[in-house]
Write a structure and sequence with these properties.
The protein has 112 residues and is an alpha+beta fold. The protein is built from 3 helices and 5 strands. β2 and β3 form a beta hairpin. The mean pLDDT is 86. The structure holds zinc ion.
Length: 112
């Protein structure tokens, strides 16, 4: 089942493949850019991404320790908009430095 969705300026294109009764694999690719705030100077900047997105999804709660990265869709509907949005929010919640601060990396380390 092909999927295509976008959030802000990022597009997710991929396929959903059923794998057993309760599991679905998302084999996707995200391209585009989104706004980030630099964690150092606070400046807003655009980050371009071109990333593969491979996820396991399940409609039952898994208690397997191997499946910590599994995404549950307990109502039986896979909300790809939500998946893309949460991937971007995850990227946003990491430490991100704008290009200028990245290039200042050496100086930054000296401060500590
Ligand atoms: Zn910065």
């Amino acid at each position: 089942m092909p999927i295509e969705t976008s959030f802000e300026s990022v597009t997710l294109i991929g396929t959903l493949k059923k794998s057993g009764y309760h599991k679905v694999f998302l084999d996707g690719h995200m391209t585009g850019s989104f706004e980030l705030n630099c964690d150092r100077c606070g400046k807003t900047y655009d980050l371009s991404i071109d990333n593969a997105l491979n996820l396991k999804l399940s409609d039952i709660i898994s208690d397997s320790k191997d499946d910590l990265d599994i995404i549950e869709f307990l109502n039986g509907e896979i909300d790809v908009d939500y998946i893309l949005e949460s991937e971007i929010n995850t990227l946003r919640s990491e430490y991100n430095y704008c290009e200028k601060c990245n290039n200042d990396g050496v100086e930054f380390e000296v401060e500590y």
